[in-house]
Amino acid sequence: MTPELDLVTRPAYLADLQARSIEDIRAMRLECQGLENGLSYIRRLAQGRMDVVGGELQRRRGGGTAGDLADLVDRLPEILAEHSRGPGQSRPPLDLDPDSPTVTALEYRLDELGSRGVVAADGADDAALEVVLDELVAFEREVSAARRHLHEIIDVLRDELTRRYRTGEASVDSLLR
User: Fold this and answer.
1) Residue 110 to residue 135: CA distance in whole angstroms
2) Pairwise CA distance, residues 123 & 106, whole Å
3) Which residue, among 149, 155, 166, 147, has the nearest Cα to 25 in the 3D structure?
4) Are 150 and 2 in contact (CB under 8 A)?
5) Backbone CA torsion sign across 118, 119, 124, 126
6) What is the pLDDT of residue 175?
7) To 5 degrees, how large is the angle CA 38–CA 40–CA 43?
8) Which helix (H) or strand (E) holds 152?
9) What residue ranges of the chain have pLDDT lower than 50?
């Protein structure tokens, strides 16, 4: 997907984990959490664009005409609010590094798909819009799969840290240093 993701998802990334220092493992976990946060951001952007393209298709199926961007823009609050969460967040937000090569590369790919979606919404036939929606869905699935893989890696790193605390190889006092 990106060189950054390729590096942390290779089996070699977790090789000899027990031989690594606790500082290395913490740094690896932080690196993976940063990547996961970036993927989460990109995934939410993709889902929003899928909702917009899907909303345009639905509008057309309901009798709307192709190329009526004013109506689409008027409906954006409704379209984008449809899949939003209720109050509160399921996890605390992490800082997003806007200069992350992974976020930048994925934003670029998503922007290419999104700009085609806007062009399609501005007069293309339904079939072209369906193609854009299918591409957005495939992109979102790819990002979600990479995110799930990162969750697995983060779990392995967390488990190794937990093991060290349980066995006494590391102490809570080391966190304060």
Assistant:
1) 10
2) 27
3) 155
4) no
5) negative
6) 61
7) 110
8) helix 126-167
9) 92
Measure Cα distances from 110 to 11, 68, 151, 160 in Å. Answer: 28, 23, 22, 35
The whole-number pLDDT of residue 115 equals 67
CA neighbor of 35 nearest in space, from 114, 161, 158, 149:
149
Amino acid letter, residue 117: G
98 burial via Cβ count (<10 Å: 0-12, 13-18, 19+): exposed
For residue range 92-123, what is the model confidence (pLDDT) as tens digits? 455 555 568 888 889 889 888 866 666 556 66
Q: Which two tokens mark 169?
A: 């190889």
Residue 80 CB contacts under 8 Å (≥ 6 apart), including other chains: 48, 51, 52
Q: Where are the alpha helices (DSSP H) in 62-81?
A: 69-81
**What is the total residue count of the chain?**
177
- Please name the amino acid found at residue 156: V
Other beta carbons within 10 angstroms of residue 112's beta carbon come to 12
